[in-house]
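General statements about sequence and structure are easier to judge against a single worked case. When preparing material for the folding task, we compiled for one chain both its residues and its backbone structure tokens. The amino acid sequence and the backbone structure tokens for this protein are reproduced below:
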Amino acid sequence: MSGTDSGDKREQINLAALSVEQLAQIKQEFEQDISNIQDSLQTLYNCKAKYALSKEALESFHPDWKDHQILVPLTSSMYVPGRIKDLDNFLLDIGTGYYVEKNLESSKDYFKRRIEYVQEQIETIEKIQIQKNRFLNAVNGVIEIKQMAALKQMQQQQQAA
């Protein structure tokens, strides 16, 4: 087999063969992974919402707004007054300090594509989260079985003594 074929195979772990301590460590790692995934998902949901708000703002744009006074954000808490001069050219922040100038329809299309892309990422990460939750539940189940077996064994030893 080639090196890429072996990379596609998943490693299978017999949970029943592991000690409770090893299972607890695996459980902790999966809980941390799930927490990180939830943080990532929240970031993606926030990003999608910002793109949706930007697209919504462009869709509510009216051609009769020429020379309309607006507040222009300089930071998240500082705004300066401004006037709309050009009704068909928009400056879009595409990330890491880069901006691109697009017309109204291209701007709407840009935000539509970004929303779709972020949604695809959300769906991919949600599938990973489901898999990790299933594995975590399996680990929890094996830990519970092992703890019950250990408790039963202790009770039997106490009865024998």
